[in-house]
């Protein structure tokens, strides 16, 4: 067969025609793909219900979509690579067509008002590297709120993901451990996510930032977090986490910021933190840490907050090594000793909080070095001596609180002391002078003291003149008192009260034995007892009438308690006014052992810690259905110990059946019943632990009412999220 021969011009013409056809086909493809991106963007815009800044006004046919506001395209393919609409106050839902932007690498929708759920089509964005969805109103589907996270595992290059500040609930799925190992930033905080932290997070070995704050996470910190050796920021604050901080976190030597505040962590502060030289910010406040103060001894720490714990001992001298420190807060602990002089080395301090401790001694001269200080709080301690004059010269000082100490002398009048709204000195009984707004007594001058000496001499002369008269009156009074002892004495309380004799109280307290002694007050001793007739536990306050003021105190207490009836006050059963077996006068108050804190029986004044104790007992009573004065509690058993022995294994068992019945009355599907029961039990255990922490015997170890409110608020959020609280 012969071959047809084409001339050169014909060949050239054919080649050009072929190239033209190729270009035409390629142009059709390019146009089609470009239209895909454009249509996806227009579909996204269609779901926007509010655009107050007009951020999407440029999204129209008059302009190439790659020039639309917030859109960035690749030069090579003319495809959308980045969509950035951060902080535009946009409202609406995220269109499913977002999944058609197949070249998208960065999607930033932070700080808007997007609502409803994240479309599952987002799983198509396989090239996605950065996804910001934080600070919106997004939520999950009813079936499984966080299931969309599993679809993100398709994005093998995803390195940054943030969804904090939304309305997501449920538990983190284990598939979170299948995220790309290139992930460096994971932020899921400020939602309503519950349950334990999944151990699979330990697979994300390249994480540099892990943000899980202000959720409802419970349980302990998984030790696998120690595998995240590249971690620079770890924030687990504002959850319901408990237990001890694991030793594995010692491996996080690159840690710059560690936030564990507002949880239920206990035990000592990990000693290995002393060697974390990279730490710049450390917040362990509002937990139950005990033992000594621990912090990085050297390094660049600028923020240290150990407040609202149970730390004891002294503030270490090494605090002076932290020369870059800007804020130090150790308030609300049981620290004692004097302020270390080395604190003056921290001359960059702006905030210093040491209030509500047991510090004593004078305010040291070294504080004079803190020229940059803006807030200084030394209130509710045992500081003594005069207020240093150098505090007047602190020109940046905006708040100074020296209240409730034992300071004395003249109050300075310059600088911060010119304004009573920023300087506070109440509760220092020996202070005088100062601006009129402080309402302190006038100081006594030396001349006044000299005149006072002459007055004193005159007074002594008069007193000696009256001494003879006083002796006569005293003799007559004792004679009358002796005759009065032989007459029958009636109780000052109502006749409806129990009639208990001296002999009955003697038997109830085993002869007022030392084994039954539970406290000593200003005017007598307090014994625990057991009435033989009804086996009720009682507290017997026996007055020592040889002490001056004891009889007056007895009458005053009788008169006051006769008119007071309140469930949170110790119930007075009766008063006994009789003669003992030696013929001496005997007076005692008899009450139930219940809501009142034990220190009140020792003569302590009514206090905030005492109110917390009563609240804790009341909380335990509400949930157990048992009164603290119930006959169930005998010997050394009380409501506090009863609950402490039952937690956590028997929390449901000791709970009032009426509460459990109420919880079961809500309609729940079979699939969610197990999860609801688990959340209910976790919340129940937390409530019992709050009650126990409030009702411990030692006042300073009781939980602060601020922390009680914070934890109860977290429980409320958790129950709402699980639809257990309507």
UniProtKB/TrEMBL annotation:
Signal peptide positions (record): 1-31
InterPro entries: Kinase-like_dom_sf, Leu-rich_rpt, LRR_dom_sf, LRR_N_plant-typ, LRR_R13L4/SHOC2-like, Plant_receptor-like_S/T_kinase, Prot_kinase_dom, Protein_kinase_ATP_BS
Molecular function GO labels: ATP binding; protein serine/threonine kinase activity
Main location class: membrane
Annotated GO CC locations: membrane
Keywords: ATP-binding, Leucine-rich repeat, Membrane, Nucleotide-binding, Receptor, Repeat, Signal, Transmembrane, Transmembrane helix
Protein name: Protein kinase domain-containing protein
Membrane topology annotation: Single-pass membrane protein
Listed SUPFAM superfamilies: Protein kinase-like (PK-like) (SSF56112), RNI-like (SSF52047)
């Amino acid at each position: 067969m012969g071959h047809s021969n084409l001339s050169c011009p014909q060949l050239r013409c054919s080649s050009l025609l072929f190239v033209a056809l190729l270009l035409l086909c390629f142009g059709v493809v390019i146009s089609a793909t470009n239209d895909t991106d454009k249509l996806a963007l227009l579909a996204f815009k269609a779901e926007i219900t509010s655009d107050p800044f007009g951020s999407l006004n440029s999204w129209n046919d008059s302009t190439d979509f790659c020039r639309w506001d917030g859109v960035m395209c690749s030069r090579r393919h003319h495809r959308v690579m980045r969509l950035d609409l951060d902080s535009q106050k946009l409202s609406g839902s995220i269109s499913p067509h977002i999944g058609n932007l197949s070249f998208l690498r960065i999607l930033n929708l932070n700080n808007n008002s997007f609502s409803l759920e994240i479309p599952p089509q987002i799983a198509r964005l396989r090239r996605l590297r950065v996804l910001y969805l934080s600070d919106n109103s997004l939520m999950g589907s009813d079936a499984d709120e966080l299931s969309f996270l599993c679809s993100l595992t398709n994005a093998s290059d995803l390195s940054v993901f943030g969804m904090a500040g939304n309305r997501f609930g449920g538990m983190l799925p284990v598939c979170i451990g299948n995220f790309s190992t290139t992930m460096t930033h994971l932020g899921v905080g400020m939602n309503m996510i519950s349950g334990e932290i999944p151990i699979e997070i330990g697979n994300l070995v390249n994480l540099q930032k892990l943000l899980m704050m202000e959720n409802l996470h419970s349980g302990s910190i998984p030790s696998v977090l120690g595998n995240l050796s590249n971690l620079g920021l770890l924030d687990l604050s504002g959850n319901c986490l408990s237990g001890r901080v694991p030793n594995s976190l010692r491996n996080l030597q690159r840690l710059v910021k560690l936030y564990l505040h507002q949880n239920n962590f206990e035990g000592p502060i990990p000693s290995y933190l002393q060697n974390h030289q990279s730490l710049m910010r450390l917040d362990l406040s509002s937990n139950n840490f005990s033992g000594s103060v621990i912090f990085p001894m050297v390094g660049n720490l600028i923020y240290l907050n150990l407040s609202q714990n149970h730390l004891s001992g002294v503030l270490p001298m090494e605090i002076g090594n932290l020369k870059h420190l800007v804020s130090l807060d150790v308030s609300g602990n049981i620290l004692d000793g004097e302020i270390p002089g080395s604190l003056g080395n921290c001359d960059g301090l702006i905030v210093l909080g040491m209030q509500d401790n047991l510090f004593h001694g004078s305010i040291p001269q070294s504080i004079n070095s803190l020229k940059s200080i803006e807030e200084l709080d030394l209130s509710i301690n045992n500081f003594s001596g005069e207020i240093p004059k150098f505090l007047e010269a602190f020109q940046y000082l905006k708040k100074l609180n020296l209240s409730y100490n034992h300071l004395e002398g003249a109050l300075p009048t310059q600088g911060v002391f010119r304004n009573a709204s920023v300087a506070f000195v109440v509760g220092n009984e020996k202070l005088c002078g100062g601006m009129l707004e402080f309402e302190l007594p006038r100081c006594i001058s030396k001349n006044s003291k000299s005149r006072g000496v002459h007055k004193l001499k005159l007074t002594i002369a008069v007193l000696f003149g009256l001494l003879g008269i006083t002796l006569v009156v005293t003799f007559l009074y004792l004679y009358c008192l002796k005759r009065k002892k032989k007459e029958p004495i009636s109780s000052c309380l109502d006749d409806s009260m129990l009639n208990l004799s001296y002999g009955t109280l003697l038997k109830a307290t085993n002869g007022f034995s030392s084994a039954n002694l539970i406290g000593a007050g200003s005017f007598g001793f307090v014994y625990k007892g057991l009435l033989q007739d009804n086996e009720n536990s009682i507290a017997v306050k026996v007055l020592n009438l040889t002490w001056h003021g004891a009889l007056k105190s007895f009458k005053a207490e009788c008169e006051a308690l006769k008119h007071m009836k309140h469930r949170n006050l110790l119930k007075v059963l009766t008063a006994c006014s009789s003669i003992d077996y030696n013929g001496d006068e005997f007076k005692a108050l008899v009450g139930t052992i219940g809501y009142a804190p034990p220190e009140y029986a020792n003569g302590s004044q009514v206090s905030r810690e005492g109110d917390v104790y009563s609240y804790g007992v009341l909380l335990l009573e509400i949930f157990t259905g048992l009164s603290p004065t119930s006959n169930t509690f005998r010997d050394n058993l009380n409501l506090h110990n009863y609950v402490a022995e039952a937690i956590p294994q028997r929390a449901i068992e000791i709970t009032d059946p009426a509460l459990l019945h109420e919880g079961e009355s809500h309609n729940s599907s079979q699939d969610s019943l197990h999860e609801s029961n688990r959340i209910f039990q976790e919340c129940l255990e937390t409530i019992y632990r709050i009650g126990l922490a409030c009702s411990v015997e030692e006042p300073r170890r009781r939980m602060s009412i601020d922390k009680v409110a914070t934890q109860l608020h977290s429980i409320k959020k958790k129950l709402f999220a699980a639809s257990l609280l309507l």
